[in-house]
Amino acid sequence: MDTKKFTMMELFQAGRRAGTPIFAISSFDYEATIQQIVSWNAKKAADKQEPIIQWDSMRGWMGRNELGKKAIEEALSGEPIESTIGPIGQLEFAVKLPEDTMLFMMNAQHYFDRDGQPAAPKFVQAVWNLRDIFKSNGRSLILLGPSFTIPAELQQDVLRLDEELPDDEQLDVIIRAAAADAGVDLPEDSIPLAIDALRGIAAFPAEQAAAMSITKKHGLNVAQLWERKRQLINETPALTVWLNGEKFNDLGGLAEIKSRFRRIIAGKRRPRVVVWLDEIEKQMAGVGTDTSGTSTDQLGVLLNEMVEKDYTGTIFVGVPGAAKSAMAKAIGNEAEVLTIKLDLGDAKGQFVGQSEEKIRRAMKIIEAVGGHGGAFFVATSNDISAIKPELKRRFKKGIWFFDLPDSEERTAIWNIFLDKYPDVDPNDLMNVDDSNWTGDEIRTCVTTAWEEEVSLSEAARSIIPVAISGREQVERLRREANGKYNSTGAPGAYTLIGDADPTQNAANSGRKLKLDD
Questions:
Q1: pLDDT at 288 over 70
Q2: Statement: 241-402 belongs to CATH 3.40.50.300
């Protein structure tokens, strides 16, 4: 079976050969997309070249080649160019364009909005009216936008294509061109570093970032390239580059999970980007029950992307404050790759289809940064029962249970935070009863003592451990994890020893917890 993945240009050319009258191309860089098609058209024999016209709401029609300029003159027949300024008016004039014309429409996504605008239904009708007219003589209306929610009336009539972000080969050309323009001879070993920093950025901003980061005086500033990349990713709905976090040695305990993920990082499928879904059970809330269908829509896209792009990952579940999020963020730092936080709630739209488009756009960025199979997904959860089984199966590196740290692990956590805050007197620790505290509660105690200039025992008085305040939740989590999920502290499955009640003797990573630890 042929598994070749066709490029946007190959699919576009096939569509033109088939006489497709309406295209919708999702693009991060309209000009780069148009330039590709203009260049392809210009390479044809002179008698095979076709008119190309561009429309936007400020300038109306513009010819992108000489044939396009001539086509505008013939279609307008003396009418002023202002006649084509409006989105609907220019489509009405489009019926006069000569055969084989390609008409690009910039930011066409705005005119499909279903938010009560009276122009939207008329625009949909105007596009539909061109279908058979354009089909009859090889003309094409090419809608350009960052993403599209095509209304039902047109879904069967529009060929939707996605413009890919630049690959490594194209980024190599961009970087070398920027260096040549700056008169800088870059060392060969710096080119891969620049490619890593620009991967996931559209062509035009990549060119701008490269040009600004290469100077005769300083050569290539890779850190500046990374900063520009972070800014651009942060501007994408649902995505945030996570800059904070520690490495594994900054986290106390968790010996088994650290060992496993060090192997993964050093293995043959080293992650190229970590994608963190925090409190995934909340992000998936409403799947199958929300009346708008947006949550179900997003789940479908996420499941499909993880399968098609061969992504893998893991789920961290357990007691609140037991270092699930800290470990999730530490994986990217340990692997020295970006950690991108994916917030599905931020990608929700008002209508079915809008959420799908937003999440697809976010997933395109993730694929561009990590490549096929290069994204490693880490989902954290305080209630895994809310996660659909079909989603759990996508996380091939298992489900890990984070319990309260035992005495040895608590000691390691205390040492880490006391080293960070040397002004805090460690001798007072003997007066603190940290039985069944989480790592986050230890951190809170130390930082409170430092901020308020009080002793550790004084800071500890205001801490109500989750083992007490969330006793029922901890019991339920332990029973759910028993024998089912990986232990973070010892090899094999998590095993509950004794009572699940955290205030009594309980199991943690195969060891008993006692109140006098």
A1: no
A2: yes
